[in-house]
């Protein structure tokens, strides 16, 4: 049709007196360009509209496809490319992210360990999220919370946002983890979440730390404030000056309960990808932290923490009734707690 129109206008150019031929030629040429331009634009717009309706020109449907890094087949389910709803990852959108959880018990060094992890430029561990009871009231609220964390939509001071390479949280065994272990283990498998278990070998030291922390909660010797962790040697010295007296009648049942909980947790999540760490091992040998970074598939860095250890001295100097404790534990499966120790400079 466009060719016919152009031939028609070409024929028009020879009409008229010779004197006016030049003027008619110019007017006709302008008209020709205008008509052809309008015609071609209308055809183009119709084609674009057709493509849009067909779904070939919808920018919303064009998304950058991220390539999974070269890993073994079993590991592919642990490589993620989250798409947060609260911000855009920009140039880091195709940087793979690993999901993890630090599973531990109170007074086992998990707070210190988490600050070490968060000193890594690409790690975001969001703290003890489920210490808030409503978040662990049922499995639905637990899953909703986990989904936000692993989608990078949970903001804390530890969040690295766009270029996070590993994201997770600290989760105590008694904060809904054990009570809902079947559903949570299933969630971890489905979502590709790796578990970092952190426990304390010497449960007697842990018991002393619990009692000292309970005293601090009520007495608040640091200017009327309770602090579970400190960042100065002076504060640590003040808290370490308190020496609890342990109820030896309850000591063995309490140690057994703590030991059984750890064993049960390892059994519940045995089929989940995990690594088991002990506080004492990290204290004595910081190269253990390289194993953690390798486990999370993140580049190795020197990890640091500003936290200062509170109880540094020999175990027998940490309690008032050491003699009574010795009598109760001697000859029991927990006797080795009396002798296992480590030095901290």
TrEMBL record:
For this UniProt record, the keywords arranged alphabetically read as follows: Membrane, Transmembrane, Transmembrane helix
Answer yes or no on keyword Transferase. no
* Record-linked InterPro entries: Nod_factor_sulfotransferase, P-loop_NTPase
Its domain of life? Eukaryota
Q: Does the keyword Membrane belong to this entry?
A: yes
TM region(s), chain numbering: 23-45
Which PANTHER family does the UniProt entry name for this protein?
PROTEIN, PUTATIVE, EXPRESSED-RELATED (PTHR32175), SULFOTRANSFERASE (PTHR32175:SF0)
Listed name of the protein: Sulfotransferase
What organism is this sequence from?
A: Ambrosia artemisiifolia
